[in-house]
Design brief:
β1, α1 (12-23) and β2 (29-31) form a beta-alpha-beta unit. It is built from 2 helices and 2 strands; from the N terminus they run βαβα. Helices cover 34% and strands 9% of the residues. The chain is globular and about 40 Å long. It has a domain at 1-35. It binds flavin-adenine dinucleotide (FAD).
């Protein structure tokens, strides 16, 4: 298999990296040693610093549906 970028780890860091690369037209391959998501929640709250980063990326805009 021929891939430009291989991301090892599909947690928040790897997932965000894959997302950002895809937004820029790249097609990264992301792999993880587990076949599915973790069974316990790890996202009860979003840290303020995370929201700042989302804001810089334009990801925290409010949408009405
Ligand atoms: C119980 C719990 C509750 C939490 N609650 C919150 C919360 O409410 N709010 C918050 O902001 N944060 C929370 N956190 C912290 C948050 O989960 C971490 O900060 C975040 O997951 C880190 O993301 P990451 O992508 O860097 O690492 P990880 O989420 O650890 O992802 C790394 C991934 O890489 C995979 N991997 C590792 N090595 C290999 C390998 N050699 N080959 C293939 N795959 C590999 C792992 O399986 C994993 O899926 C919580 C954490 C825990 C444990």
């Amino acid at each position: 298999m021929d891939v430009e970028v291989l991301i090892v780890g599909a947690g928040p860091t790897g997932s965000m990296l894959a997302n950002q690369l895809a937004r820029r037209g790249m097609r990264p391959l992301i792999i993880n040693r587990h076949s599915g998501p973790a069974q316990q929640t790890r996202a009860m709250a979003v840290q303020a610093r995370t929201l700042e980063i989302y804001s810089k990326m334009g990801l925290n805009e409010q949408h009405t549906h």
